[in-house]
Structure formats: structure tokens, C-alpha cells
Amino acid sequence: MSNAQSISVQQLCQKHDDLQVDLIDVRTPVEFREVHADVARNVPLDALDPHAVMKERNGSSERPLYVICRSGARGAKAQQKFVDAGYTNVINVEGGTEAWVSEGLPATRGKKAMSLERQVRIAAGSIVFAGAVAAMVTGNVYLAGIPAFVGAGLVFAGVTDTCAMGMLIAKMPWNQVCNDGTSCAVK
To answer: Would you list the DSSP string of the chain?
Structure first.
């Protein structure tokens, strides 16, 4: 995105003091429950429908829409989804929720959760370890394809800033929040 608009957390907070801003947090519901800017509402990236979001704004698609995530990367992806759908007045919050919290801006804190990035590292590491051990123990060279496949996926994720494993893990029940505010994981 060549002419992507962004704003610092300080500038956004100042704007909010002057007028009402519309801020959507595109992290998973569990990440949002852990900590989020007081003025944000949760619309997870994997379920983001730009047309539906704009329709909910009751015809105010000309007003700026601000997107925030943990550090800025998912916010940029959400911003691009809006631009691709024809909405150009979408602004990514630089540094995301991490910057918001570190600046001491008003935030709501809830139940602590494991970050999506950490879950991806655990899953990828476990698959690589299991595949490598299976290949060594059985002597089956084809089992070495498992860690090679995951390694290639991690390289692809790093180059494209798109992680299929992260998107899959984000949809898992433990990363969803039920109506009672608890994790939707099987209890």
C-alpha cells in the first residue's frame, strides 16, 4: 500500500479528546479481552468485512476509521482490506495497542491470555521437533519433509507478513470469547 495513512497513539488520543473517533481493534477476541484501548471495539481480522463495518457506521463512511492491533502489522492488513473494498479514509494506529498501553493511555484490562504470536511459535516448534525426531527414530527420510514444510512456511510468513498457521490458530476455540466473557475452549 503506497499511500497508507497512519497516526500515532498520542495523535489519536488527542483527536478522541476533541471529537468521537471510531476505532476498531482487529486482534483476536481473547487478545482484545486481555487489554485494549478504552475507545476500541473488536472486529477480528479473520472475520473483517469492510462493507459490513461501514454499514454499521450508519452512512458515515466519509469519517475516518482507525484500525489498531497489537503492534501495527495486522492493522495494516485490515487497512488494506478496506482500501481494496473502496474505503480510503482508513488510518492505521502506529505501534498498536502495545504503544497505546506504554504511553499510559486509557485502556481496559481483562483476563491475561497467551499471544497469538507465541501460540504460533509453540505450534511450529512442536511440529518441527516431532517431525525431526520421527525422521531420526524411524530412519524414514520422507518424515524430514514435515519440518522442512513448516520451515518453508515460516520463511514464507516472514517474507509476505502473512501466516497461515496464525490465521488457523486465531480461529481455535481458546482464542474466541463466549457470551459470558470466558474462553470458548471445551471445558
So the answer is: -TT-EEE-HHHHHHHHHHS--EEEE-S-HHHHHHEEETTEEE--GGG--HHHHHHHTTT-TTS-EEEE-SSSHHHHHHHHHHHHTT---EEEETTHHHHHHHTT--EEE-S----HHHHHHHHHHHHHHHHHHHHHHH--GGGGHHHHHHHHHHHHHHHHS--HHHHHHHTSGGGSB-TTSSB-S--
Domain interval for residue 125: 116-175
What predicted TM-score, i.e. pTM, was given to this entire model?
0.68
**What is the count of structural domains for the chain?**
2
Q: Are residues 91 and 38 in the same domain?
A: yes
The answer on 151 and 79 residing in a single domain is no
Do 65 and 92 touch, CB atoms closer than 8 A? no
pLDDT digits (tens, 9 = 90+) for 99-129: 999 999 989 998 887 878 888 999 999 999 9
Q: Which residue has the cell 486465531?
A: 170
Q: Which of 56, 78, 109 is the last residue of a domain?
A: 109
Does the pLDDT at position 186 exceed 60?
no
Q: Which three cell numbers, joined as nine digits, stand for 170? A: 486465531
100 and 170 in a single domain? The answer is no
- Assess if residue 28 is contained within a domain: yes
In the structure grid, which three cell numbers stand for residue 21, read together?
473517533
